[in-house]
Amino acid sequence: MPYEQLPARGRDSLSAVRHLITGGARFIGYEEAYEAGFEDMLRRIPDTSRIESLLGWHPTRNLDTILSDVIDFHRDQEFAKLQKHM
Q1: N or C: which end of the chain has fewer CB within 10 A?
Q2: Quick one: which of 33, 63, 29, 60 has its CA closest to 45?
Q3: Burial of 10 (0-12, 13-18, 19+ CB in 10 A)
Q4: Where are the chain's structural domains?
Q5: Residues 20-71: tens digit of each pLDDT
Q6: What is the CA radius of gyration of the chain?
Q7: Considering the entire predicted model, what is its pTM?
Q8: Which 8-state DSSP code applies to residue 33?
């Protein structure tokens, strides 16, 4: 699905990821990311209301914080690999 056709929440999430990642990162289209015949939902809207109603659980961290932590972790892992080879 082209970026322009994503729901606003999806575009906001992608923009947040792009903003957090530095370097040579680039956006690639769905067709390039997945092989022909790959089936995926047309849109995803995260909803934790069911788990909250069943178990009383609710998220304690927002998406921006989670994305930032995951990106930092993987960036640090790659940096550590590079340092081992120096």
Answers
A1: C
A2: 63
A3: middle
A4: 1-45, 46-86
A5: 665 556 677 878 888 888 877 777 777 889 999 999 998 899 888 999 999 8
A6: 17
A7: 0.42
A8: H
